[in-house]
């Protein structure tokens, strides 16, 4: 049943991204809860022209803001997802907000869950920062995607002080 619901979420997310009219590859991360947590969902990355469109749809989160980051390793095998490593940072920049020029490529900011634990986020990122190509230093394909317990403070180096990991997914080309 759990695999069926994840498959349905993937179809919904990819359908939502279809309205973006992709001009290139689409990558998806199926988010699974870490041990003791309930967060799950789907995050899609769609290339359109010189932008990467991000569409996140999550459930099972505690209400409020949660740090949302791409991590360096596509390994969610550890119960706490520590196996996903640190933030993806192909350019060696300091941690920061998606609105700052100086930030990790993997800094997606915060995603906010409503009182029912549902969170949705749509954003665009320049392809000069990250991309969904099969290869290259800035490719996010095969990287981990993490939703954290606490909000990203955009200051604490190198993590944003976002706390434990609630959900983890591996970004894969569709």
Structural class: mainly beta
What name does CATH use for the topology?
Immunoglobulin-like
Q: Ranges with pLDDT <50 over ≥5 residues?
A: 1-20
Order of helices and strands: HEEEEEEEE
Radius of gyration: 15 Å
CATH class: Mainly Beta
Helix share bin? under 10%
Q: What is the strand content?
A: 35-45%
Q: What sort of overall outline do the alpha carbons produce when their principal axes are compared?
A: globular
Number of DSSP strands?
8
| Full CATH superfamily name | Superoxide dismutase, copper/zinc binding domain
- Mean pLDDT across the residues is 88
Give the neighbour order of strands across the main sheet.
5-4-7-8-1-2-3-6
- Count of helices? 1
Question: Termini distance?
Answer: 22 Å
- Proper CATH architecture: Sandwich
Q: In total, how many domains does the architecture comprise?
A: 1
Largest beta-sheet characterization: 8 strands, antiparallel
How would you describe what is shown here?
The chain is mainly beta and 174 residues long. It has a single domain (2-173), classed as Superoxide dismutase, copper/zinc binding domain (Immunoglobulin-like). The chain contains one helix and eight strands; from the N terminus they run H-E-E-E-E-E-E-E-E. It has an eight-stranded antiparallel sheet with strand order 5-4-7-8-1-2-3-6, covered by helices on one side. The model is unreliable at 1-20 (pLDDT under 50).
């Amino acid at each position: 049943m759990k695999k069926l619901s994840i498959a349905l979420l993937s179809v919904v997310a990819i359908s939502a991204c279809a309205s973006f009219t992709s001009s290139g590859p689409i990558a998806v991360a199926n988010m699974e809860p870490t041990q003791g947590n309930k967060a799950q969902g789907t995050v899609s990355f769609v290339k359109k022209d010189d932008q990467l469109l991000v569409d996140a749809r999550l459930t099972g989160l505690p209400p409020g803001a949660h740090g949302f980051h791409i991590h360096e390793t596509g390994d969610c095998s550890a119960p706490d997802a520590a196996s996903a490593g640190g933030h993806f940072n192909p350019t060696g920049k300091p941690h920061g907000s998606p609105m700052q020029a100086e930030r990790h490529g993997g800094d997606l900011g915060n995603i906010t869950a409503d009182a029912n634990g549902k969170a949705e986020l749509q954003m665009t990122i320049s392809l000069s920062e990250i991309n969904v190509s099969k290869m290259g230093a800035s490719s996010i394909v095969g990287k981990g995607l993490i939703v954290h317990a606490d909000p990203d403070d955009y200051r604490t180096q190198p993590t944003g002080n976002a706390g434990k990991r609630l959900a983890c997914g591996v970004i894969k080309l569709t």
